């Protein structure tokens, strides 16, 4: 089959993006109207959440810190555990998450690392610019670079999950000198993702929310109706939620997420990340040159496991892929013990050498 010229590929890509955006929006409207008809009072009723859940101030998870970076002037919030001066482990969360999604790793790795779980731009207690153009991936990458400098480090073990995995890949590509080892959960190399989704309608359906989020204000509305039911279902439903009984969300865990994302304007920043995803794709540079561990859930409802193996091509160093049986999309929470063990093994691995 002949490859399409670049201009035709771009036209086909954007046609798919906006067509699927319209389709997903129509589906969301139908669901909203049905909800209004069936339970009109409950649809727009929200529980007031003004008191910070106790678990977010658990001293065993670490210390709440803030740093203002020079380039943007934004103030970033992070939670740090482990002694200053130890090697840095930087944790980048996905959507819809925040620093608390790394609670099991903050406890685990502070023995040997200075572990920093960041609230990305627009999330949690980190500043959230109102203009969606302030969430371009180029800016997010620079955020992480400047935060590393502000923490007094030049290198780190970089770990990203979901959207944070996308950012981790890009940092590893753009600033390889910053990353000693790369660990990504539940997200393939960005080039694999953009090429795979065009060829596999099943993945396009699973990634439908990417296209839906291109719309202004309506996605925020849909996530907030029925007291944030969509948010609750993402982590608790049988199809997409955390599967392992020992690590299912407690009521307090769920309230922590609802507290953060129910604050005024708290959904717009996270969604604005997605509204800029197509600004830097496809990539001009692809290769990852540091040792890389990719963790994947066998039962991930959002990304197909075939993309995990395809990622190997872009890593020009030691590459380890582990697919976790019965693992969901929320691996560092769903399979915390196993994920931590695999990370420890990878960090202590001595087979790291550049491939010939």
Which structural category do the helix and sheet elements fall into? alpha/beta
Biggest sheet details: 8 strands, mixed
Low-pLDDT segments, ≥5 res: none
CATH superfamily annotation = Alpha/Beta hydrolase fold, catalytic domain
**Multimerization state:** single chain
Count every beta strand, where a strand is a DSSP E run of 2 or more residues: 8
Helix content: 40-55%
What CATH first level would be assigned? Answer: Alpha Beta
- Report the average pLDDT across residues: 91
Strand order, largest beta sheet: 1-2-4-3-5-6-7-8
CATH T-level topology: Rossmann fold
Radius of gyration: 20 Å
Strand content: 5-15%
Organism: Eleutherodactylus coqui (Puerto Rican coqui)
Family: Belongs to the AB hydrolase superfamily. Epoxide hydrolase family.
GO molecular function, one term: epoxide hydrolase activity
Domain AB hydrolase-1: 87-332
Verbal overview:
The protein has 356 residues and is α/β, with parallel strands linked by helices. The protein has a single domain, classed as Alpha/Beta hydrolase fold, catalytic domain (Rossmann fold), CATH 3.40.50. The protein has helices at residues 6-38, 40-43, 103-109, 137-150, 163-174, 190-199, 201-206, 208-212, 218-236, 251-261, 268-274, 306-310, 331-334, 336-347, and strands at 63-68, 75-81, 88-92, 114-118, 156-161, 179-185, 292-297, 319-324. It has an eight-stranded mixed sheet with strand order 1-2-4-3-5-6-7-8, with helices on both faces. Strand 7, helix 12 (306-310) and strand 8 (319-324) form a beta-alpha-beta unit. The longest helix has 33 residues, at 6-38.
């Amino acid at each position: 089959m002949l490859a399409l010229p670049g201009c035709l590929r771009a036209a086909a890509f954007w046609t798919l993006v906006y067509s699927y955006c319209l389709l997903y929006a129509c589906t969301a409207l139908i669901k909203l109207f049905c909800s209004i008809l069936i339970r009109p009072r409950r649809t727009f009723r929200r529980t007031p959440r003004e008191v910070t859940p106790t678990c977010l101030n658990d001293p065993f998870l670490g210390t709440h810190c803030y740093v203002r970076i020079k380039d943007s002037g934004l103030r970033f919030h992070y939670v740090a555990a482990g002694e200053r001066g130890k090697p840095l482990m930087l944790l980048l969360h996905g959507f819809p998450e925040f620093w608390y999604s790394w609670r099991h790793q903050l406890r685990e790795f502070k023995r040997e690392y200075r572990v920093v779980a960041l609230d990305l731009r627009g999330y949690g207690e980190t500043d959230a610019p109102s203009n969606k153009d302030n969430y371009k991936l180029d800016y997010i990458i620079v955020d992480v670079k400047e935060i590393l400098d502000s923490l007094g480090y030049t290198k780190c073990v970089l770990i990203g999950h979901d959207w944070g995995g996308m950012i981790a890949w890009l940092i590893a590509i753009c600033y390889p000198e910053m990353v000693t080892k790369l660990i990504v959960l539940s997200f393939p190399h960005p080039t694999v993702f953009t090429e795979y989704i065009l060829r596999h309608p099943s993945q396009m359906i699973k990634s439908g929310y990417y296209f839906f989020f291109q719309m202004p204000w309506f996605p925020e509305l849909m996530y907030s109706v029925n007291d944030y039911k969509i948010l609750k279902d993402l982590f608790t439903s049988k199809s997409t939620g955390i599967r392992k009984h020992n690590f299912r969300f407690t009521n307090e865990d769920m309230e922590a997420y609802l507290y953060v994302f129910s604050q005024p304007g708290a959904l717009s920043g996270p969604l604005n990340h997605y509204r800029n995803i197509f600004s830097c794709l496809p990539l001009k540079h692809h290769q990852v040159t540091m040792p890389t561990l990719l963790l994947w859930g066998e039962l991930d409802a959002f990304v197909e496991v075939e993309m995990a193996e395809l990622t190997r091509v872009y890593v020009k160093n030691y590459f380890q892929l582990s697919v976790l049986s019965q693992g969901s999309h929320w691996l560092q929470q769903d399979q915390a013990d196993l994920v931590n063990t695999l990370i420890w093994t990878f960090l202590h691995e001595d087979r790291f050498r550049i491939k010939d």
